[in-house]
Design brief:
Elements: H1 13-18, H2 55-61, H3 88-127
Length: 142
């Protein structure tokens, strides 16, 4: 589908630019391929431009310059909590409970890691074909 019916062995940039002036090179227009789908499946929707806004609505939406004497943010008082005093004892109890939960999770994670490692070791021993993989306590009660 190139322009030149006999392409050269090596493409030189000067040759590309000068080939347009060469009368032996014929350019063939590319024709669009017909669609494989019938035209009934497609529908062209008309584009309707927006109507211009009226002068009154434009004046409402226009930005007003800020008042230099007004505070930058209004109404922070509604977001401030009432000063009931700090319940130090309650806060320390909640912190202690959180610490105990964190320690319990850490201990449970360590125990679980040890159990999984032992299980893996015993499973590797059994799968390798060995016997006596588990330690059996043979202490007799006296």
């Amino acid at each position: 589908m190139g322009l030149n019916p006999d392409p050269p062995d090596s493409i030189v940039p000067e040759k590309l630019y000068s080939s347009a002036k060469d009368p032996s090179v014929r350019a063939t227009p590319v024709k669009p391929e017909p669609s494989s789908r019938p035209d009934e499946e497609h529908q062209v929707l008309p584009f309707r431009p927006r109507k211009p806004a009226s002068k009154a609505s434009q004046a409402v939406h226009r930005a007003q310059p800020p008042d230099p004497t007004a505070p930058p943010v209004e109404g922070l008082a509604k977001y401030q909590a009432e000063d009931d005093g700090d319940d130090y004892r309650h806060r320390m109890m909640v912190n202690l409970a959180a610490l105990l939960v964190t320690l319990a999770l850490a201990i449970a994670g360590g125990w679980l890691a040890i159990q999984i490692a032992d299980l893996r070791k015993n499973q590797d021993c059994v799968l390798s074909g060995r016997t006596n993989c588990m330690r059996i306590d043979s202490k007799l009660p006296r």
